[in-house]
Amino acid sequence: MPRLHMHVTDAAEAPLRVALRELRGKLEIPDHFPPTAQAEADSAARAPRILAADGAVATEHTLEDATELPLFTLDPPGSLDLDQAMFLSRRPGGGYRVHYAIADVASFVTPGGALDAEAHHRVTTLYFPDERVPLHPHVLSEGAASLLPDRDRPAVLWQLDLDADGALTAASARRALVRSRAKLDYAGVQRILDDGTAEEPLALLREIGLLREKLEVDRGAISLNVPEQEIVERDGCYTLEYRAPLPAYGWNAQISLLTGMAAAELMLASGTGILRTLPTAPDGSVARLRLTARALGVDWPHHTSYAALIRTLDPRRPAHAAFLQECTALLRGAGYTVFDGTAPPASEAVHAAVAAPYAHATAPLRRLADRYTSELCLAASAGVEPAEWVRSALPALPREMETGTQRANQVERSCVDLVEAALLRDRVGEVFEALVVEIEEKDPTHGTVHLYDPAVIGSVEAAPEGPALPLGRRIPVRLAEAEPGRHPVRFTPA
């Protein structure tokens, strides 16, 4: 989809803020941390615990000093909850070495304490247009635990060795004290990579990223370059944009993906772990996608696999962007698989989109499961048993993560609905050009449209006695309804 800019009018701004507050109340989103949890966070920020590889408090131990590594972070502008920092280098004799530091949340959260209990209640950080509801208090997530530049921080430091083709040859994790040197953003990194002024540690991000992307293609993995309908704030107003990720975003994601795959293999070898798993989509789902591709005018040769097709699509073309959005249906059904003592069968340990075992490992400031992945990998790497507090939490984690992920998805969709309605509330009755991207199987007079301008996705309903909606066709639609917090945008064919 094209990148379109759209501002909330003054008339819409106040209703939107009210609707966002009402939404948080409706979803029972906490607006503060319990005093006991906040007190624990304040205390931990001043004096984090020093832990051993097995997760136990190390009374006669100091952290390994790895502050000589010139790590850098890569995140959206303005981000302060920095989970990861990296340093990339060439290995003597060929290949690459990736040092990847992950925030050591366990150094700040005492198992069984009030802060731990609150994290298990929240599960994930939630993002609203006007504020962020963090998994951990700001004093930790944007302060003492965050890998902010020019500050010493405890971290889980991964060392990932790759061969000349980018394939993983060795992986280990240990606790260390690290110090990031620079806080970078995607647009800035993409610019200096494109103009050739990037120094080698950063230039290697593209080199390694491209190699890892080729390996991803070779193993038949699915990588959807789906434009996101993103809520952004500009000059004090909210904007909706279709944003196609920059290549640097994908290369950075490859480092995170590499770490998640290495974590999965470490845990499978040790016999205790928590994996992010996704079953293979049934044949019928792919067949339905072929029909959608035909309707949208997407050329899908019979001999071309689904995984290969999506890499040929251009998200800047509306029909391709709409098809990529429909492809996300094949990624539904992801969950978490825990094991302790015996690794699951290979068929049950794979994430179908990754086409390999995979674990959530790189965002412990924002996602609960990652803290436990870090602890299990530290123990496995050191050849010791994980702490009891880690093992005892495993059985409940899949259900906790499922609940938290559903809440986060609901928040995201509800926020987009609110912003769309706020932007269009004064334009009811106007006609817009739209692309029909989906129709309901049971009622082809109901479906979904992507507007070309502004950047809005909404439902469309034709008269019951009318003709079926033309999937993949551009049609004029009339805005029938838009009321923030009451009714999401709804269109009728004009």
Key attributes of the depicted protein:
494 residues, alpha+beta, five-stranded mixed beta barrel, 13 helices
Overall number of strands = 17
Compressed to H and E, one letter per element, the order equals HHEEEEHEEHEEHHEEHEHHHEHHHEEEEE
Question: Major beta sheet, specifics?
Answer: 6 strands, mixed
Computed structural class: alpha+beta
Helical percentage: 25-40%
End-to-end CA span: 22 Å
Q: Could you tell me the strand content as a percent range? A: 15-25%
Outline type? globular
Rounded mean pLDDT score = 89
Low-confidence stretches: 1-12
Radius of gyration: 24 Å
Number of helices: 13
Quick rundown:
By secondary structure, the protein is α+β, with helices and mostly antiparallel strands. Helix content is 36%, strand content 23%.
Question: What would your notes on this structure say?
Answer:
With 494 residues, the chain is α+β, with helices and mostly antiparallel strands. The protein contains 13 helices and 17 strands. Strands 1, 2, 3, 4, 7 and 8 form a six-stranded mixed beta sheet that branches. The chain has a five-stranded mixed β-barrel with strand order 13-14-15-17-16. Strands 5-6 form a two-stranded antiparallel ribbon. The longest helix is centred in the last third of the chain and has 28 residues, at 397-424. Residues 1-12 have low confidence and may be disordered.
Q: Topology of this structure?
A:
Elements: H1 10-26, H2 35-46, E1 64-65, E2 71-74, E3 84-90, E4 96-103, H3 114-122, E5 126-127, E6 132-133, H4 138-144, E7 152-162, E8 168-184, H5 186-195, H6 200-218, E9 228-234, E10 237-243, H7 247-270, E11 272-277, H8 283-296, H9 306-310, H10 318-327, E12 335-340, H11 368-382, H12 388-393, H13 397-424, E13 431-439, E14 446-451, E15 457-461, E16 474-483, E17 487-493
Parallel strand pairs: 1-8, 2-8, 15-17
Antiparallel strand pairs: 3-4, 4-7, 5-6, 7-8, 9-10, 11-12, 13-14, 13-16, 14-15, 16-17
Helix pairs in contact: 1-13, 2-3, 2-4, 6-7, 7-11, 8-10
